[in-house]
Design the sequence.
């Protein structure tokens, strides 16, 4: 007989539940099965009403992030065998509002992302006939690490400051701001500073460091924020000492 | 929204400077005065010599920076400990005045101290 493992999955159906609760499911314990495979097994074979997000199954799309045994992880990259002997507790990402079962509301995060303008900003757009914006491998290496972010929001579920202060822009958005700040083709740093040097910006971070611990892509958002604090402070002092200067 | 300007870059600079200077130099003071000299690894320096060393302008600047910046380091960290640890962010104004105010008072006392050695 096949061995099984128990999953305790947080359920919440807003049309009939007043509060979330945990429901137990027994699934086959198969080698090379990840937590997402177990959820798919439940959905296909035991309980079709279970809702959760997923897409690529290979750590690229960033949509299957959940709390597994109280840790924010990508369920497509967390093997059942890592969680022995079970039960495995699966819950929606911490600090987010739950829409249904394991599906969280990402509106707040999306809004924060937009506010840091994570796209190339140039003062003047070069006409197409003048060719592309060229970059050396060294210039690309400056921001490469921060460009690995897949917006999975695990860092928001790990950051106690993001949990306590909803207005805090948060790790991934700041790392993405830095991805463009460090891009040799970009000229938008000043605009991003307006969002990030003030209330709820980089200085709300107390360097807990959990964002970098849980990041599945080794983006190191904590490092990105620390670098921003240093350059932001330098720019602030410059604006005080040389108020007429262009900072 | 995040675009409300504040003085956090200023306080953070003092916090960072205080953390760096105290992390580097306070262990040296503890090791020398708290461990090495009591254990007899070094001879006890004579009082007059120490006073003379402390009166040197560079020593005064060093002692003042060490005292003042360490206090600002404490103030900034304690401010956020009260915000997040004890979840007292709603008392923000009082906490800011208490933390940085204490560091400023300590800085003034420190200045008087180093000038009166």
Sequence:
């Amino acid at each position: 007989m096949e061995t099984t493992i128990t999953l305790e999955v947080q359920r919440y159906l807003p049309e009939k539940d007043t509060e979330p609760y945990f429901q137990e499911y027994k699934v086959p314990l198969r080698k090379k099965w990840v937590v997402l495979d177990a959820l798919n097994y439940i959905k296909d074979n035991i309980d079709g009403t279970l809702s959760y997000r997923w897409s690529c199954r290979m750590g690229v799309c960033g949509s299957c992030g959940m709390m597994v045994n109280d840790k924010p992880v990508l369920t497509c990259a967390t093997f059942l065998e890592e969680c022995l002997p079970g039960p495995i507790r699966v819950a929606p990402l911490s600090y987010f509002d739950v829409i249904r079962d394991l599906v969280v509301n990402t509106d707040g995060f999306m809004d924060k992302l937009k506010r840091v303008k994570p796209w190339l900003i140039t003062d003047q757009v070069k006409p197409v006939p003048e060719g592309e914006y060229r970059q050396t491998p060294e210039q690309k290496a400056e921001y490469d690490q921060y460009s690995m972010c897949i917006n999975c929001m695990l860092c928001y579920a790990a950051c106690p400051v993001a949990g306590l202060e909803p207005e805090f822009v948060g790790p991934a958005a700041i790392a993405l701001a830095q991805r463009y700040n460090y891009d040799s083709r970009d000229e938008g740093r000043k605009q991003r500073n307006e969002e990030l040097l003030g209330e709820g910006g980089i200085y709300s971070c107390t360097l807990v460091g959990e964002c970098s611990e849980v990041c599945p892509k080794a983006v190191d958002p904590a490092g990105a924020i620390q670098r921003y604090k240093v350059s932001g402070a330098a720019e602030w002092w410059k604006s005080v000492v040389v108020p007429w200067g262009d900072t | 929204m995040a675009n409300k300007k504040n003085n956090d870059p200023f306080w953070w600079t003092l916090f960072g400077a205080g953390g760096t200077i105290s992390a580097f130099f306070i262990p040296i003071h503890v090791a020398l005065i708290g461990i090495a000299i009591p254990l007899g690894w070094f001879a006890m320096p004579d009082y007059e010599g120490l006073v003379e060393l402390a009166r040197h302008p560079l020593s005064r600047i060093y002692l003042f920076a060490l005292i003042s910046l360490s206090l600002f380091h404490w103030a900034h960290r304690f401010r956020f400990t009260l915000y997040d640890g004890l979840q007292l962010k709603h008392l923000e104004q009082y906490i800011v005045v208490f933390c940085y105010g204490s560091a400023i008072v300590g800085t003034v006392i420190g200045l008087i101290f180093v000038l009166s050695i």
Chain A touches chain B through 24 residues (CB under 8 Å).
